[in-house]
């Protein structure tokens, strides 16, 4: 009996060790960015495509204040309320002390410079498909923005979701590997649109329904779903519901006006402020991509 007990304890310890290994933070290799040099001018385009200011600027920020990434916006969900952190150039309370690799690990792997998991409210599941050069360029642009000393507020997340180590298990089940959702024979423009919409623009994070554990249901890509805060819903933007022409979509991403003379509201108004700063060909690429998304009711 004693031998059996010792054997079971050993097996349990081995299983625990394997489990901890599997759910550990998994950063990029130290040499992942070797030879890459950031271009701040190109990084500005990445900044608007990725929508950084929509979440990380102060809630009521306008004009140049949208470039002060002080954080503080609150995002309620069934798992708790998440608060956008300060990602300004402040070395103590922002990301002024981050390296290019730190940003790449955060965006592509959901791992902090301290080696802990980020919550997937930060859309690293989508960003996992980002080109490393784009991340380096984005870091170069972020370094040109103002520093703000406002400390980041803590998330308001209760047990068991407050145990970040458990996020490693979530990542094993649902973490992004960078593979595209819409596949097939795409034109160069449609492929560019897929990258902008699926990866940098992370459209699926709002417009795709989620399962009970908060993971996107990729089989119902962009089919819409309830707002995590519990009020309202995100619209279905697949061809099953979105019957706008490509020109209509481009106009909406430029001015926020719909073909019915309505206008973008809520957080989507902030998204349009970002897409309006992209080159016309990028908005056209997104429109072309949306026409290739499989219809989903």
Major pleated sheet: 2 strands, antiparallel
What oligomerization state is this entry in?
Answer: single chain
Number of helices: 12
Query: What is the averaged pLDDT score?
Result: 91
Helix content: 25-40%
- Going by helix content, strand content and strand pairing, the class is mainly alpha
Strand order of the largest sheet: 1-2
Task: Indicate the topology.
Layout: H1 2-22, H2 40-50, H3 52-56, E1 74-77, E2 80-83, H4 100-109, H5 124-127, H6 132-142, H7 167-174, H8 188-200, H9 204-207, E3 225-226, E4 233-234, H10 246-255, H11 266-275, H12 280-290
Antiparallel strand pairs: 1-2, 3-4
Helix pairs in contact: 2-6, 4-6, 8-12, 10-11, 10-12
Which key terms come to mind for this protein?
297 residues; mainly alpha; two-stranded antiparallel sheet; 12 helices; 4 strands; 4% strand; globular
Describe the structure.
Helix content is 40%, strand content 4%. It is mainly alpha-helical and 297 residues long. It folds into 2 domains: 34-176; 180-297, Cytochrome Bc1 Complex, Chain D, domain 2. A hairpin with a 2-residue loop joins strand 1 (74-77) and strand 2 (80-83). Helix 2 (40-50) packs across helix 6 (132-142), helix 4 (100-109) crosses helix 6 and helix 8 (188-200) packs across helix 12 (280-290). The protein is globular. It starts with a helix and ends in a 7-residue tail after the last helix. The mean pLDDT is 91.
């Amino acid at each position: 009996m004693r031998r059996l007990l010792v054997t079971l304890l050993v097996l349990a310890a081995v299983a625990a060790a394997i489990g901890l290994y599997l759910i550990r933070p998994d950063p990029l290799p130290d040499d992942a960015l070797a030879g890459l040099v950031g271009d701040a001018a190109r990084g500005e385009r990445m900044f608007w495509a990725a929508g950084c200011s929509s979440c990380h600027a102060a809630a009521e920020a306008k004009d140049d204040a949208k470039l002060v990434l002080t954080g503080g916006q609150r995002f309620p969900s069934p798992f708790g309320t998440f608060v956008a952190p300060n990602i300004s150039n402040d070395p103590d309370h922002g990301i002024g002390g981050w390296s290019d690799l730190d940003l790449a690990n955060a965006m592509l792997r959901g791992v902090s410079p301290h080696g802990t998991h980020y919550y997937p409210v930060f859309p690293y599941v989508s960003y996992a498909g980002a080109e490393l050069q784009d991340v380096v360029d984005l870091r170069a642009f972020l370094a040109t923005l103002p520093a703000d000393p406002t400390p980041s507020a803590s998330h308001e997340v209760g047990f068991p979701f407050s145990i970040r180590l458990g996020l490693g298990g979530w990542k094993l089940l649902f973490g992004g590997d960078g593979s595209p959702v819409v596949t097939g024979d795409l034109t160069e423009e449609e492929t560019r649109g897929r990258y902008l919409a699926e990866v940098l623009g992370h459209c699926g994070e709002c417009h795709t329904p989620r399962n009970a554990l908060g993971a996107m249901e990729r089989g119902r890509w962009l089919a819409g779903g309830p707002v995590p805060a519990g009020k309202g819903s995100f619209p279905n933007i697949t061809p099953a519901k979105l019957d706008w022409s490509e020109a209509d979509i481009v106009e909406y991403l430029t001015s926020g006006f719909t073909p019915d003379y309505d206008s973008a509201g809520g957080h989507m108004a902030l998204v349009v402020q970002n897409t309006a700063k992209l080159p016309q060909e990028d908005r056209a690429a997104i429109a072309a991509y949306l026409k290739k998304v499989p219809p989903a009711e």
